[in-house]
Structure formats: C-alpha cells, structure tokens
Amino acid sequence: MSKGLCELYGLPAAELKQLLDQDLEADRVTLMEIHGDVARSTHSWQRPGVAEFSAKQQAISLAKATVGLSKLDLFNEDSLFLTDPQAIAASFPQIVACYGDDYQLNNGLLAPFYERGELRGLVAVENLNPALNLDFNDLIELTADFVGAKVAGKNLEEQRDTDVLTKLNDRHPYLAKLNFYQKSQTSRTVGVAFMDLNGLKKANDELGHDAGDKILIAAGNLISQAFGRDYVYRVGGDEFVVLDDQSSRTEFESHCAAFEKALTQPASPSISIGAEWCPDSHYLREAVERADRKMRRQENDFYKSHKRYR
Length: 310
Prior knowledge:
By secondary structure, the chain is α+β, with helices and mostly antiparallel strands. The protein has helices at residues 5-9, 13-24, 69-73, 85-91, 93-97, 136-151, 171-183, 200-207, 209-227, 249-262, 284-305; strands at residues 28-35, 38-46, 60-61, 80-82, 108-115, 118-126, 190-197, 232-234, 239-244, 271-278. The strands form 2 sheets. It has a 6-stranded antiparallel β-sheet. Strands 8-9-7-10 form a 4-stranded antiparallel β-sheet, with helices on both faces. A hairpin with a 2-residue loop joins strand 1 (28-35) and strand 2. Helix 8 runs antiparallel to helix 9 (209-227) and helix 9 (209-227) packs antiparallel against helix 10 (249-262). The longest helix has 22 residues, at 284-305. It is elongated, with a radius of gyration of 22 Å.
C-alpha cells in the first residue's frame, strides 16, 4: 500500500486493500480533485504490477470530456459505471492518453463527492470485475466519504471517524464496516472481540474525569498493542470492539491470549472481554452480538467479586 489515500485521509489501509483487491478486484483507485473546469489526480493507489500515472494527470480538462460536468451533476451523489473501452477512450481522451500501450482501461467507476452541493471531486476506480453484482455506491463510500470530508477542509476528528480522546476508530467506521460486510458479495473470516472498561463511572465520580480519561487512553493503548490499531473501534463511552479481518483464527486467538495476559500486569486497566470467531463476514453482526453477550457475563462476574474501579 503506497502513500496517499490511507495516510492523508485516515482510511484503514487493510480495509482499502481488501476493497480493491478482493471485493472490487480493481487495478487502481484515484482521487481527482476538481478546480473550476480542470481535474487533477492528487492521490492514487494501484495494485502491484500496475504502473503509476498520476503525475501525468494534473491538468485534465473537463470541457474536453464528452461526459462533462453537466452529466456529473445529474449523479445527485450517485455513481457512473462505464464498461465500453471505446466509449471510455472517446469520453476521456486526456486520461486515456496518459496510459502506456501495455495498460488497457476496460471499465471505470466514477463516484463524485460534494461540498454544500458543489461538485468538488471524483473517486475513480479502474478495471474492477464487471461480473460482480455489487452496490457500487456502498462500496465506494469507504473512500468517497473520507476524502470528500478532507477535501472540503473539515477536520476528521470533528466528524464521527476518529475518537478524539483515544485516537482510535470511532463508531462511524465501525458501523460502516458492519454494513460493508453485510452487503459485500464476497466473504471473509473475522475475529471479533467486544470489551468494556470496568468501573469507569466510579473512577469518574471518585477521581475526576481527567483520571477517567487517562484510564480510557490506557485501555485503548493496551487493546491496540494486542490487536493492532487499525482493527480497534471505540463504540461507546467505555466500550471497544475489535474487528480483525486479516488474521487467521490461530493468530487472532493468540492476540486474545496476549491481551488477557497484559491485563494481569500491575496497574493495568480492568477490562471485560468476549471473543468470537466469525467464519463468514455476512454474519458479522451476529458474531458481534455473541461476543457482547460473552463480555457481559464476564463483566457481571467481575462486579460480583471485585470492588475496584479500574
């Protein structure tokens, strides 16, 4: 995964890689920012073996494209999927001219993003698998929403994407991933862990909210160290969820064991956890619910036998 979309816009690298490699089976994704009647490639990702052409795509005249701004305005936040190579070459001659003779643009998906109703740019996906029966808007939302917010000059931390306190993924990308897997044509295995910080309310009441914040930050760091920051979501005041769609079952179980061992160290925060292995990501929501129930049972046992607030 190269620099660009992931580093600049906070998009989880593993999630974008899976979107392109496995779910869309695409060659490339490009962010085209629009300034007046000109579009320029600001960031792109391409799978291994596909050449980088963004340097040549810095002054694309939209007036010379037969699919012009008037057609894009008709999207109304929808997407356009072009499948005829000759029509693509005729519609976007400047873009096609940038490619070498060894690269054939067979299809393209264009998904626009807006600021206050004004078209600001496009996310373009090239050479995706046309046989896939997918809701392209839902799939491309994982990129367009992120980059659209950034291009519009909004701070991502002020959106619902990153938790300001812990710097972890927030509830919005968590729900987006659940929705993504529910609608995706392909399936993945996912390791799920639901966690709750024990005694946070009591800590806030007796020690103050600053102390409670420090405990939350410590909990987030501990979870990230065990499972990897990209897969951790703060979904509530004292609740965290891990959705690990890259590790094998053996690896995920090893991460769980490492985490539980870390909880035994002196001064570590007290965290209840319920873990579940999901063999089919189409049923990820059900796996999360099972993990939540397991966590609640452990949490109830904790409060029966402890009177500590960390």
